[in-house]
């Protein structure tokens, strides 16, 4: 039964004008008028009428004989009719009860109506009463009507659930395995599955009744087939149980229960995936276990295709009475809703291949695969005995119902994949995915067996969907696969098993691709290959997997079916994006259409995609639905369908991203393509053109960042890039930037404008530069300010604009305006841009200190302080900007009264963020900000009121924070102050020293394994901070250093300092500071002269670093707060161009 929706009808003109009922009837089509007339006749009957039974019998026959598909009948009319009929038909009139139940089922199924709660309560009570009082021969029809009533209405049946699903409930008795009547059992199980059905966003059947139904479904599927019974009814019973299990899983998040419960369900599903497949013997264990090894089942695949397969033990032994009953059931069967006779015939034709089906057509293609096995068994023609069998019609119907069972099992498996965690299912992969074939061993049943052997294209497509769902999101699990060309050892590791399985998947899906003739199933094969390519670690496997696939897919690019062409482009996009760049894919891209290498000229895939986007379609490859497609109504010069063009644009973007070195020669042609797409009327084409332009800009920037890896000399690349951006900026990009009707396109255009190479921007004409800056500044005050302010954050780092004081000031005002926006996304982008602007202030400190007004600087400091109280995404960039702004303040500004309070608030914001319970990224950015603030000598570090709090926050973070990056940045900040007086009195100096020593001792202890990779960097930074303190210590500080420099602790500390304290590079200039190590060694006689010499040597190395000591160690050892592209150092400002995440 398909998911019903509420049917609404439009009021007729006669109703609006208040005409008579006869006028209203005449205005409706015949089914509507007849239905309403019979409703009025039924409403006029009374229980006391003498001709009530005759009139009811006639009215019910007339109502049942109508076809209501597509009729505009309001749901409330149906509810009124059924409620009135239930009042008039007493349970004692069994023939009328059966007809009423048939009417209920027909109306609700054909019109897809869910009855309201009062009607539901009335009719469920009526059907329960009929089950108690009527003869058993009526019960299947009554249960069928009940299943239509309770479909997706389980939560509204609370009053009747104990009567139906209680320990001795009606449905529990009828669905028990001991029930002799299989038809009655099927109807009861189907009714329970309807109770479990839930609509999206609506509540499901409550516990414990869901669990009762679940156990019944499992029990039904696990019970053996009764020795006597109709084959079709048994198939319908299995299908109802599988549907019920699917509905249960759709509304349930899988929780760990008994160990064998998931294995039992998987065993059941695997068993019925092969139910009735010709030539396959079902030998599946009842329980599957999670193991990387093969299951213990032994399966034999019968290869003979000349004899008619026996699908079930009872196939062909259907009695005449059962045949008659099954024909009557087919008319009102509700397993999948009402199906027309034509649909059954069509599906039967799909399941049973015609004789000699297309074998010659595909035989040349099969020869393309070396060592390929013959065509799948379903491609072979039927035998003469099957064609001439007088019982062929019934056998075909049985095969049709068996295919429905297999398809229901696959749909249930899909629902299971959605509710069970991926990592749990990885252990069961060996039960459903093939391993490397072993000569002489029996074949095992896997999903690929269905793909290659099932006669139904719908079932093959369903198995491919399950396989795609299994592969989706499995990249982490498959990353352990490794293909090594060494002889097999005594055992096979998991990596080798996975690699062999992946190779077999490629081989089997290639066979399916060559043999498939159904366009819908062919589309699923190609999509499944795309999922496989996206998740396989080709860099860890031997080359050669992609080349055959690449050659096989190319003929399908010109397939007649548009869905096949789109899926082919999707697969090509997966090939060029999988672990790019791959050497094998690069060679395939260089090869021409003939397969030979073509080093010169544009890439063939690039030419193909550009032709699909820009050139008229070839009439020889028209679609099957060309008569109704918009492309063919436009004449012979019609373009490719929109999905094909969009997918081709996506393939171009992926090629540019992964293999720009192969397409850079066509940069100008790609620019013209982007201009053409941006100039079209279709918004989707415009958006994909803008996305391609953005990828081109990013690829050009990455090419320049990779020093020495450019494929062309730098001047030639530069001229080409400048010409490219000149053409783009003179094209329709400006119109896309101003298109307020399509904000997504506007955002993408802003991102494309932000991807300009800084060196190319400086060589553009002045009018183009002014246009870019003016457009972005204007958009920050419009409705799409997030992308515009992010682009401004990129532009403020351009070297050619960092000295443009007017632009810096205008950008600062625009960013400050966006920081007060109500959207958190806009504020996040504005805070990131403010951090980049603060980096620019530091880079050009000498110039901009005299040009930036105090008022603007005060606004920036206040705005950054307020933003540090915002959400973590905003806060992480705000604290970064605060540190740089405090560093930028000049002495004349710090002494002014209006700056004193904002400075204290800014320092308090930084120190409180370091100590607060926020994300680690925010904390290490705050430590980095404090380190930058300490660089300003005018802030009077050590004597200011906030100094003690700042040192306390940093020492607490360096000693106790569980995140090593926070500790690295806090240690770097503690090593910034260049003078002894910056650390305060001797007690403060000792606390800083002790915190660093404790952090050094605990640098190898971490509960999180992910932090271990940073332990070496942490020890290096801690040792440099300690050596820096040693180079500054005075005699009065020795008392605080004594406990850590004496005894065993002191020896361990000396070992750390001498092994891990060597800086990466020593400064070439700068005078050696006076080292008070002689005073330390004199006060601590336990130190040996060798220890003193080694440690003194390290102190001298620290002292030789430029700018008066170790003030810059925080940014030299590690790149503080670079994670997530939220913090950039002064030496590489262009790293700010990455979008914050």
TrEMBL record:
Keywords tagged on the record: Repeat
Basic and acidic residues composition bias: residue spans: 331-352
Region: Disordered, residue numbers: 1-29, 304-393, 1101-1141
Occurrences of domain DUF4042 (ranges): 404-585
Compositional bias ranges of the Basic residues kind: 320-330
The keyword Repeat belongs to this UniProt entry's keyword annotation: yes
Keyword Iron (UniProt): no
Listed Polar residues bias regions: 1-12, 1126-1135
Protein name, UniProt field: HEAT repeat-containing protein 6
Source species of the chain: Denticeps clupeoides (denticle herring)
């Amino acid at each position: 039964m398909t998911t019903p929706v509420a049917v609404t009808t439009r009021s007729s003109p006669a109703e609006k004008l208040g005409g008579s009922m006869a006028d209203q009837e005449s205005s409706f089509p015949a089914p509507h008028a007849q239905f309403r007339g019979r409703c009025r006749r039924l409403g006029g009957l009374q229980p006391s009428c003498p001709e009530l039974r005759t009139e009811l019998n006639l009215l019910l026959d007339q109502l049942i004989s109508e076809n209501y598909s597509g009729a505009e009948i309001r749901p409330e009319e149906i509810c009124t009719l059924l409620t009135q009929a239930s009042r008039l038909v007493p349970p004692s009139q069994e023939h009328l009860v059966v007809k009423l139940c048939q009417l209920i089922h027909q109306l609700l199924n054909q019109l897809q109506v869910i009855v309201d709660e009062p009607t539901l309560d009335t009719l469920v009570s009526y059907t329960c009463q009929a089950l108690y009082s009527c003869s058993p021969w009526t019960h299947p029809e009554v249960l069928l009507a009940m299943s239509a009533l309770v479909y997706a209405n389980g939560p509204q049946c609370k009053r009747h659930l104990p009567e139906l699903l209680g320990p001795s409930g009606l449905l529990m008795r009828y669905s028990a395995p001991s029930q002799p009547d299989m038809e009655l059992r099927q109807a009861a199980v189907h009714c329970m599955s309807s109770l479990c059905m839930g609509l999206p966003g609506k509540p499901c059947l409550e516990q414990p009744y869901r669990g009762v139904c679940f156990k019944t479904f499992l029990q039904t599927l696990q019970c053996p087939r009764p020795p006597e019974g109709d084959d079709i009814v048994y198939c319908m019973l299995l299908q109802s149980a599988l549907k019920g299990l699917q509905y249960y899983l759709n509304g349930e998040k899988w929780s760990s229960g008994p160990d064998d419960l998931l294995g039992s369900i998987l065993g059941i599903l695997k068993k019925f995936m092969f139910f009735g497949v010709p030539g396959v013997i079902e030998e599946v264990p009842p329980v599957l276990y999670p193991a990387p090894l093969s299951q213990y089942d032994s399966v034999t695949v019968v290869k003979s295709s000349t004899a008619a397969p026996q699908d079930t033990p009872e196939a062909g032994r259907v009695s005449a009475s059962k045949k008659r009953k099954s024909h009557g059931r087919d008319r009102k069967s509700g397993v999948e809703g009402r199906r027309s006779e034509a649909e059954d015939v069509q599906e039967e034709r799909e399941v049973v291949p015609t004789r000699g089906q297309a074998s010659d057509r595909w035989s040349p293609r099969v020869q393309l695969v070396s060592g390929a096995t013959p065509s799948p068994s379903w491609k072979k023609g039927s035998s003469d005995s099957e064609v001439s069998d007088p019982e062929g019609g019934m056998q075909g119907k049985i095969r049709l119902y068996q295919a429905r069972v297999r398809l229901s099992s696959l749909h249930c498996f899909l629902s299971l994949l959605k509710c069970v965690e991926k990592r749990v299912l990885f252990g069961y992969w060996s039960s459903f995915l093939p391993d490397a074939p072993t000569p002489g061993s029996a074949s095992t049943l896997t999903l690929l067996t269905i793909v290659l052997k099932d006669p139904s294209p719908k079932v093959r497509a369903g198995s491919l969907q399950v396989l795609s769902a299994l592969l989706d999101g499995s990249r982490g699990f498959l990353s352990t696969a490794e293909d090594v060309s060494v002889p097999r050892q005594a055992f096979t590791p998991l990596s080798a098993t996975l690699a062999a399985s992946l190779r077999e998947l490629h081989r089997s899906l290639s066979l399916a691709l060559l043999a498939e003739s159904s366009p819908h199933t062919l589309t699923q094969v190609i999509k499944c290959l795309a999922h496989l390519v996206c998740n396989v670690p080709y860099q860890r496997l031997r080359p050669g997997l992609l080349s055959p696939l690449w050659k096989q897919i190319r003929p399908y690019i010109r397939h007649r079916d548009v869905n096949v062409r789109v899926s082919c482009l999707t697969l090509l996009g997966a090939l060029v994006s999988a672990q790019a760049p791959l050497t094998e894919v690069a060679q395939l891209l260089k090869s021409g259409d003939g397969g030979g290498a073509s080093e010169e000229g544009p890439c063939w895939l690039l030419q193909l995609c550009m032709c699909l986007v820009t050139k008229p379609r070839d009439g020889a490859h028209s679609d099957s639905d060309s008569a109704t497609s918009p492309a063919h109504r436009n004449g012979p010069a019609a373009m490719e369908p929109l999905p094909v063009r969009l997918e081709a644009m996506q393939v171009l973007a992926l090629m540019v991203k992964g293999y720009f070195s192969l397409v850079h020669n066509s940069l100008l042609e790609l620019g013209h393509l982007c201009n053409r797409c941006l100039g079209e009327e279709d918004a989707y084409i415009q958006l994909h053109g803008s996305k391609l332009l953005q990828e081109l800009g990013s690829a050009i920037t990455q090419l320049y960042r990779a020093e020495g890896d450019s494929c062309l000399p730098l001047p030639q690349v530069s001229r080409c890039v400048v010409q490219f951006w000149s053409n783009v900026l003179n094209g329709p990009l400006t119109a896309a930037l101003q298109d307020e009707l399509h904000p997504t396109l506007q955002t993408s255009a802003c991102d494309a404008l932000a991807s300009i190479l800084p060196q190319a921007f400086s060589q553009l004409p002045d009018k183009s530069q002014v246009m870019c800056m003016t457009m972005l500044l204007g958009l920050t005050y419009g409705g799409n300010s997030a992308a515009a302010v992010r682009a401004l954050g990129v532009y403020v780092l351009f070297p050619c604009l960092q000295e443009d004081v007017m632009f810096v000031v205008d950008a600062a005002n625009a960013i400050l305006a966006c920081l007060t926006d109500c959207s958190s996304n806009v504020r996040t982008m504005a805070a990131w841009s403010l951090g980049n602007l603060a980096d620019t202030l530091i880079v050009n400190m000498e110039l901009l200190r005299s040009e930036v007004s105090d008022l603007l600087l005060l606004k920036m400091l206040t705005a950054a302080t307020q933003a540090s109280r915002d959400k973590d995404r905003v806060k992480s960039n705000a604290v970064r900007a605060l540190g740089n702004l405090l560093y930028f303040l000049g002495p004349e500004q710090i002494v002014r009264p209006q700056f004193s309070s904002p400075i204290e608030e800014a320092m308090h914001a930084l120190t409180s963020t370091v100590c607060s319970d926020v994300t680690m990224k925010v904390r290490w950015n705050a430590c980095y900000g404090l380190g930058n603030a300490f660089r300003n000598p005018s802030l009077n570090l050590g004597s200011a009121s906030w100094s003690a709090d700042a040192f306390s926050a940093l020492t607490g973070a360096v000693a106790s924070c569980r995140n090593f990056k926070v500790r690295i940045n806090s240690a770097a900040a503690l090593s910034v102050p260049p003078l002894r007086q910056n650390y305060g009195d001797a007690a403060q100096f000792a606390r800083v020293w002790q915190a660093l020593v404790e952090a050094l001792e605990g640098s190898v202890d971490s509960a999180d394994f992910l932090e271990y990779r940073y332990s070496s960097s942490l020890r290096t930074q801690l040792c440099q901070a300690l050596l820096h303190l040693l180079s500054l210590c005075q005699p009065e500080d020795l008392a605080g250093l004594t406990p850590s420099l004496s005894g065993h602790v002191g020896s361990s500390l000396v070992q750390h300092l001498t092994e891990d304290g060597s800086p990466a590079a020593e400064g070439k200039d700068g005078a050696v500071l006076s080292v008070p190590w002689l005073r330390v060694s004199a006060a601590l006689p336990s130190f040996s002269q060798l220890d003193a010499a080694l440690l003194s040597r390290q102190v001298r190395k620290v002292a030789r670093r430029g700018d008066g000591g170790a003030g810059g160690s925080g940014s030299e050892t590690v790149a503080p707060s670079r994670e997530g592209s939220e913090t950039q150092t002064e030496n590489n400002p262009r790293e700010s161009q990455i979008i914050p995440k």
